[in-house]
Amino acid sequence: QQQVKQSPQSLIVQKGGISIINCAYENTAFDYFPWYQQFPGKGPALLIAIRPDVSEKKEGRFTISFNKSAKQFSLHIMDSQPGDSATYFCAARGDSNYQLIWGAGTKLIIKP
Amino acid sequence: DAGVIQSPRHEVTEMGQEVTLRCKPISGHNSLFWYRQTMMRGLELLIYFNNNVPIDDSGMPEDRFSAKMPNASFSTLKIQPSEPRDSAVYFCASSLIPTMGGYTFGSGTRLTVV
């Protein structure tokens, strides 16, 4: 019940296209859902986050869509650029209120 | 702000040797996390400190691993003795309010045990 399932494992998108990464969770007590972006040789960096009382949050080209009833949330990257090529992790905050439960990651490649 | 600073960036050591990884969190952050990242297991939380006190060390794989935080600006993760299966990237992260979930990660230490 503590798992966060992320898909796909890898994704190739043409420049200018929309990249979509999905995550699903089981624990209804989760109350915070961040997305992290990780470039090779760097640590994960917080990209955007959402709370379950909101169905969508947009920051620039990045949007989180949240479906509380389905226990799913997704990251949409509009007008994807080669600089967006990275590994993306979804996460959810667990009952402990400090520990993040991480998805397995999605390696995104944007083809020029 | 220099961010979370980890050293060394790369460490290659022989099996059985002691390894010490270092972390300087962001000034003013009151929570510090050590993570391990591998292809097989992804990101694993090893230990969590709040106000320099270890709160959750349930992720520490075994007694060979130990972590300390002697003050608010410094933490170490020690592996003694090291084994090849410890090879991974070790990240330190800090946060001002842990319940906000906004961790800032360092660039990591890539450890190779041969």
What share of residues are in beta strands of chain B? over 45%
Q: What distance separates the N and C termini of chain A? A: 39 Å
Percent strand of chain A equals over 45%
**Percentage of residues in helical conformation of chain B:** under 10%
Q: Largest sheet of chain A, if any? A: 6 strands, mixed
Largest sheet of chain B: 7 strands, mixed
How big is the Rg of chain A? 13 Å
List the chains of the largest interface with their residue counts: A-B, 20 and 22 residues
Query: How many beta-strand segments of chain A?
Result: 11
Number of helices of chain A: 0
Structural class of chain A: mainly beta
* Average pLDDT of chain A: 94
- The count of helical stretches of chain B stands at 0
Commentary on this structure:
- In chain A, a hairpin with a 6-residue loop joins strand 9 and strand 10.
- The mean pLDDT of chain A is 94.
- Helices cover 0% and strands 54% of the residues of chain A.
- In chain A, strands 2, 4, 5, 9, 10 and 11 form a six-stranded mixed beta sheet that branches.
- Chain A contains no helices and eleven strands.
- The radius of gyration of chain A is 13 Å and the shape is globular.
- By secondary structure, chain A is an all-beta fold.
- Chain A has strands spanning 4-7, 10-14, 19-25, 33-38, 45-50, 56-59, 62-67, 72-77, 86-93, 100-102, 106-111.
- With 114 residues, chain B is an all-beta fold.
- Chain B is built from no helices and eleven strands.
- Chain B has strands at 5-7, 10-13, 19-24, 31-38, 42-50, 53-56, 65-71, 74-79, 88-95, 104-105, 109-113.
- In chain B, strands 2, 4, 5, 6, 9, 10 and 11 form a seven-stranded mixed beta sheet that branches. Chain B has a four-stranded antiparallel beta sheet with strand order 1-3-8-7, with no helix packed on it.
- In chain B, a hairpin with an 8-residue loop joins strand 9 (88-95) and strand 10.
- Chain B starts with a strand and ends with a strand.
